[in-house]
Structure formats: structure tokens, C-alpha cells
Give the backbone structure.
Amino acid sequence: MESLNYSPLTCDIRIAAELLGRHIEEICQRTGSSRVDVVGHSLGGLIARYYVQRLGGDARVRTLVTLGTPHAGTRVAPLANAHPIVRQMRPGSEVIEELSRPAPGCRTRFVSFWSDLDHLMAPLEAARLDHPDLLAKNVQVSGIGHLALPVHPAVATGIRDALDGDGTAADATPGTPATHTGDLTVA
């Protein structure tokens, strides 16, 4: 298991995605693995998705699990708009538009966990990954806040299941309207 933390001074999702790509290449060279699984929370999920979808990372990433990631952008934190990376996470930003473009042949499986209690997603459904070219499964969780997503036991079990290859994302097919949706309800 490896981790990569981004500097709070990171100002561009594209540059952060390039850094992630270099980190993954180093891991593959060091371990001899040809593909890896990635779990990204919030901005980290958006950076990983950009790497997979726009920078050819689908050749290296088998499964990308995202937790509370603003796939469609989020309108929360208007006062933080001064930071360039926050502007890139807004609906209609250039980065969000790039991610909505066609991605034919993308080989990565996606599992997106989103919560009905995520106060950083506006609207809440912004954390769903709905793209016609991606193998995606959306898993709605209930009663779990944004910061608790990566540490909640039920979500951790869902992540483990997705990465164990139990079909969590493998049953998704690109082009299916609204992709396949799974439900995990946590009180």
C-alpha cells in the first residue's frame, strides 16, 4: 500500500494528475506490477480521474475508487474561490468540462461512493460518476459526512469489496444511462 498526499499549495488539477502519474510509474517499476488500484478522496479522486481519463492512466489503473469526489463539480465554498484549484472544482470549469468529454476505450473500472450527508457536494449527486464511456458504479451511502467517508467501516468494506474484484464495478457497462447504481445504506 502506498499513499500520496498533495500540497495545499497545489494550484492545478492537471499538474497534480501528472505528479500522480509519475508516482504510479515509480510504483510499477519498483514492484514489477503493470497495473494498480487507486482510492481517492474528494479532490484526490478528481486528480486520479483526470490522470486515468485524460493522461492515459487507464493503462496503469485497474480500479479507481472515489469517495466524495465532485465529479460534476461542486458549488460549495464560494469564499474559497480565490484558490485556483477550488475554481477548477466548480461546475462548468474547464477541468470538469474536459472530464465530461468522450473517453472511448477507457480500461479503468470506477466505483464512486457518494453520501446523502456530504455537505461539501452541492448538489449531493455531484459526487456520482455518470459518464457514458466509463465503466462506473455509483454507491450511495447514508448518514456519513464528507470527512468520515474514508474511515467509516461500512465504506471501508465497500472499498475492499471493489478492490477484491467481486464484480462491484465489473458489472457496469459503458453507455448505460446513469451507469449502474448500487446502494449501501448506513445509519
Remarks:
- Confidence is low (pLDDT under 50) at residues 166-187.
- The chain is about 30% helix and 15% strand.
- Residues 13-31 form the longest helix (19 residues).
